[in-house]
Amino acid sequence: MADPFGGDAATRKADFVADVVNHTLHDLVIRCTKTEEVRNYYYVSIIGYGRTVGTALTGSLSAQSVVPIADVADYPLQIETRFKRMSDGAGGYVEMPVRVPLWIYPHADGGTPMCEAFTRTRAILEHWLHEHPRGFPPTVLHLTDGESGDGDPTELGRQIMSLGTDDGQVLLFNCHVSSRRAHKVEYPLDAAHLPDGFARTLFNVSSTLPENFLAAAQQLGVNALDGSRGFIFNADPSSVVQFYEIGTSLTGMTPHVWMDA
Amino acid sequence: MLTTRNTRAHAEPLRLDVRHFLLPKENAAPDECEDAIGINERTRTYAIADGATEAFDSGNWAKRLAGSWVETEPAPLSIESFQEWVAAQSRLLHESWQGRTLTWYAEEKARRGSFAAFVGVRFRASENLLGWDAIALGDCCLIHSRGGSVLLSLPVAHHENFNSTPLLVPSHESMHASALGQASVRAGTAERGDVFLLLSDAGAAWYLKLCADASPVRAQFDSLLAATQNESLAELLRNERRAGALKDDDVAALRISIA
A with B: how many residue pairs have Cβ under 8 Å apart? Predict the structure, then answer.
């Protein structure tokens, strides 16, 4: 994650991914905000893995493995002031200060203990599902920049996908980012055009996109079809953004396109 | 009381009988209701507005739209006058937020502004006719019925056409030009016995479906609303919600019958 994206020396993967995750949390909070109150329509868990495996949230949020979105809203790590270009209502633009919350900082250290990360994820899900057996199942958005360093994650991935609620099975979507300038594969229907065994491993533990996610993908102009898996290999920065937009789009909501904002 | 005459029966003056009803979502307090009703009997102007739940301060935006529209003379019934009027109302709404200390997320929502669906109608008496003019943007509807048949539903004509992303009246000035220009403007005439219903989206979609299905529930709703039997009406709508026929959303209903 300390390396740049393939073909883009200016963008360190860790910086970009942290930025996307912060924007995703921001978007989820805004979606759940009704005037001045944040309603707990989402609960969030963020696991980082490298030298260690554990929650990527710090400060007062680090004590909870699953955090209600209202707490996410109220306890960012930092709120920065940035300037945003906005319409002045008279055909021109003005630079307005906006407060931008940050929950995670970029961090790149250590290997890729994917099995340990999946094990931690499974434990969090099992606990959550025991207490919340009804309703829309949890969605796991897994982002990695490399092959598992601690064994084959297939069985653990399948175990995660076998968990569920009365409304369906846990959704596991995988996004692989690469430092190499390589051909990306987005939301494939099958494993036929995947370049190697690692890609096939991730494909095999990627859920099929349900209808609402598929609609969100299509709204974003992504070439996903009925039967497409929630999987990207060799993702570039825009694919990573779309991965999070699609993965957090539910119930026909228009995906929040923050890059154009 | 309206002093014009029916075109056919010259003897009796036409009268507008107005009833209204507001029901919040299930388990919501009345002050959480984001639908609003405006009535001005003197100018014979009527309006409803439905604030978008996801937006900032939309309940107040809906109240301002419905309440102020019926008090504005002449009622803003053309696209141009509506645009000017909305711009003024937007400024007042945004001014009301000044000085408030907001969290970062409330500030972000406020920056995006409020949104509401709106429909307003004004009746006017001319020598031999009772005319009406209406303006609507969003999915609050004006439904004009005669002899049990729906003559018009404005701006959404059929129950299948309701969706989760209607165009709404934005409070943010930068969106006025693109949104308000798409308001529906319509005029017509009314006869004795005609009924005009102003309904917010969930109620309108449900009512138009009842009409399409020739459901007896429609007559039940009409008669309870006409008789101001609001407790029974609330019970009917709650039953319809439980049955899945009516979406669990605020319901604003305004019934104007021409007698």
Answer: 45
Residue B216, Cα to own-chain centre: how many angstroms? 24
E strand intervals along chain A? 4-5, 8-12, 33-34, 37-38, 43-44, 47-49, 53-55, 67-68, 78-87, 93-102, 139-144, 164-165, 168-169, 171-177, 185-186, 231-235
Cβ contacts of residue A223 below 8 Å, gap of 6+? Answer: A186, A187
Write down the residue that tokens 């653990």 correspond to. A156
Residue contact A33–B109, C-beta within 8 A? yes
Which residue of chain A has the CA closest to B91? Answer: A89
Distance from CA of A3 to the nearest CA of B (A): 32
- Least Cα distance to A139 among A114, A166, A117, A121 occurs for A121
User: Could you report the per-residue pLDDT of A82-114, keeping only the tens digit for each?
Assistant: 888 877 666 778 888 889 999 999 887 778 999
Instruction: State ipTM.
Output: 0.83
pLDDT tens for each residue of B101-122: 999 999 999 988 999 999 999 9
Mutation site, A27, A32, A33, A35, interface B, largest B CB count within 10 A: A35
Strand partners, A175: A143, A232
Distance CA B23, CA B206 (A): 14
Q: Does B54 touch chain A (CB under 8 A)?
A: yes
Mutating which of A36, A41, A102, A212 best tests the B interface, going by the most B Cβ atoms within 10 A? A36
Residue type, position A114, single letter: M
Residue B257 has pLDDT above 80, yes or no: yes
Please name the member of A35, A74, A87 whose beta carbon is closest to the beta carbon of B109: A35
Report yes or no on whether pTM surpasses 0.90: no
